[in-house]
Fold Dehydrogenase.
Amino acid sequence: MKIPELLAAALPQDCVTTEAWALQSYGCDRTTIWPAQAVAVVRPRHIDEVQRCVQLANEHGFALVPSGGRTGLSGGAVASNGEVVLSLERMNRIVDFDPVDASVRVEAGVVTAQLQDYARDKGLYYPVDFAAAGSSQIGGNIATNAGGIKVIRYGMTRDRVRGLSVVTGKGERLELNRGLLKNNTGYDFRHLFVGSEGTLGVICEANLALAPAPADPLVLVLGVPRFADVLEVLASFRQRFSLSAFECFSDNGLRKVCAAHQLAPPLSTPAAYYALIEVDECDGAAEQAVAAFEYCVDQGWVSDGVISQSLGQAAELWKLREYLSETLAAWTPYKNDISVAVSRLPAFLVEADALMAARYPDCEVVWYGHIGDGNLHLNILKPERWSKDDFLSRCSAVTDELGDLLVRHGGSISAEHGVGLLKRDYLHYTRSPAEIELMRGMKALFDPRGVLNPGKLIG
């Protein structure tokens, strides 16, 4: 019996599809390197159906690719080798809300923006936020330990996860930490599954901590002539505020966003870099922000700036940063999502810029990132005359040199996008041989037959 027939016989009738559009749509994520070659798509509605699907995979030796909103940028949700896609999109219920603990239990298919709206209706806040919040799903966020624009204040997805319900690669169902704030009883397997990219088990439900609702945002965009001075601006504002966000982007990226979306440049005089800063609006916040801005101007760190006067203007200023990834997609960029300690960013960027100039004299490079937490996004734009294969080949070769540079600066080859297929062969730049061997051991323990997301993360 063929795999789709096995699945159809064991699961509810409408759970399994082999329609061509579904195999294509569910078989890939936002990377465009690997073709979708799934043999079936399973869309369960309950954790029991997930468990049965994993058990079948073990019994019959086929592979599963857990799938959320497929917004990933590292190939972690690609089914390119005859796998079965296990989509959690129908498991999209908000199961429970605890107002005393300020926590919520949700199924893995809940869309990030849906949870944000739910928390807002309860007078609370779910702070994990990024451009794909309208389509990414909570299970995928947890599996990749998603970060985003508010990490400087609220941390990564890991910092929100109080408990998980998972089905391991062996088909066992585990309840991890039970939503407890304090539980000092040995190994906390919950944290193994956060960031595991579907290689250890399928995340089915999560208990998540919500935050108090923040005040309305006050947003500034400042022109900064030299990247090293971005960190001086960061330090100056940190002395006065608990920052909600501190983003940075280069002028060439800003110009592309403004042209693509008919947005007005924020400042009358361009600068090499721009810092976008968000703080809570409260009594005296605007005056303190102006004082910090004027101090930075006096020091020569900032050339010009603008401060939001309304929620509408704050949202418009955020578009300058949030639209960057979408805008650059038109140039088929080769992306590197990297991080170093915040204090080492200027020195790293000088060397990285020199490397890019030497290796890609014909390519435009756009930098942007979450500078407040040391995360930079390096985008190499494909020249129109280059073929896609030639471009990828050249970029892949230089990634090794970038990896060596990150080793020297104590950085990471993947700050928040995960490893998947794209970064798998570069994992050794961040993880030692001993660590990688232990990771393989964890994989063998939870998924001994290797049915979950084979080839991803550690190969």
